[in-house]
Amino acid sequence: MKKSTPDIRRLEKIVGSFSDVTITVIGDLVADEFIFGEISRVSREAPVLILRHRERTVVPGGGANAICNLADLGARVLPVGLIGEDEPGNLLLSSFRERELSLDGIVKSKHYKTVTKTRILAGTIHGSRQQVVRIDREPEAEPDSRLSAQIVQVAKKCVANSDAVLISDYGYGSATPAIVKATLNGTPRKRAPIVLDSRHRMLE
Fold it and tell me: Count of CB atoms within 10 A of residue 50's CB?
């Protein structure tokens, strides 16, 4: 069904209004890695395909994806989250810098491993690519009390200067109910709407 002109104008008005707001995103920052290869043959070692590597891309995932989407819509975004001192974490920072986002809310730790989800896709030169396996690299535990306190500290500063707050909780510890409550309780802020996206604890 074709959109009517009033609907299109309303949508344009909504999208245009993003440039007038500042949004804090407290979220689990994930690096989505895609490795593409062409099927060359079947291995003699095991009944599996051998892929000839062609390219690799790493893009923002999880809360980092939400941050970049809001920025691309024109909003001023204040990212809050935790990354490791590793290549995936540095690539996420690069994606934020490309969008001229503040990095004041990003906590970086050598004791934390940036969540990375690697998807291996196989295909032929002129055919479609099919995901054959996904490898998730995750921290063994949620951030300790020291790192959680750092997240709360930077989050409070960001929230105090925001028109809205987005919580993007993928269960990796940067946007737990405890962190969110500690951030919002006692933080002076405008009457800002709070939006929640949580995989496992929507009602907590």
Answer: 14
- Any residues with CB less than 8 A from the CB of 111 and at least 6 apart, and which? 84, 144, 147
Short-list 38, 33, 36, CA closest to 62? 33
- Mean of per-residue pLDDT scores for the chain: 91
Residues 159 and 184: beta-carbon distance below 8 Å? yes
CA dihedral of 18, 72, 117, 144, whole degrees rounded to 10: -50
Integer Cα distance of 29 and 181 in angstroms: 19
Q: What is the pLDDT of residue 13?
A: 84
Whether 171 shows a pLDDT value over 60: the answer reads yes
DSSP bridge pairs for 137 = 116
In the chain, what percentage of residues exceed pLDDT 70?
A: 96
Distances (CA, A) of 123 to 51, 53, 128, 154, 166: 9, 11, 6, 44, 37
What residues contact residue 197 under an 8 Å CB cut-off, 6+ apart? 66, 166, 167, 168, 169
